[in-house]
Design a protein that fits this description.
Strand content: 5-15%
Shape: globular
Bound molecules: iron/sulfur cluster
Order of helices and strands: HHHEEEEE
């Protein structure tokens, strides 16, 4: 795949996220967003976080590994918001590059 401005921007952003996750970020991994109300509450907080990447990762409960919840292994790779070819989360409130094995508490099938 040719390197485009978009892919190189994605890679820079992905590296930034990887570094924040590796720095022992205290993300709100639980509770997971199981109900519509829980999703809406988290999405509203993400909206207030604006472009603050670290806050978004904390509120979203990001991890660099899949999270087991209710008997399901939740990872970006199996989430409905994951764009396989771009390795990207298209949930508007997150809108960021990810890795397939990462996870967040807004995971949806
Ligand atoms: S919403 Fe889905 S694709 Fe986006 S970060 Fe969370 S688990 Fe990954």
């Amino acid at each position: 795949m040719p390197i485009t401005v978009a892919t190189s921007n994605d890679e820079r952003r992905r590296e930034e996220i990887r570094s924040l996750l590796g720095d022992g970020l205290k993300a709100e991994i639980f509770p997971r967003a199981d109900t519509h109300e829980e999703v809406q509450a988290i999405v509203a907080r993400l909206g207030h976080a604006g472009n603050d990447l670290k806050s978004k990762l904390i509120i979203g409960g990001f991890t660099s590994y899949p999270v087991e919840h209710a008997g399901i292994e939740q990872s970006c790779e199996t989430c409905m918001y994951y764009l396989v070819h771009r390795k990207y989360c298209e949930l508007p409130e997150l809108d960021c590059p990810v890795e397939p094995e990462w996870s967040c508490r807004l995971w949806r099938i």
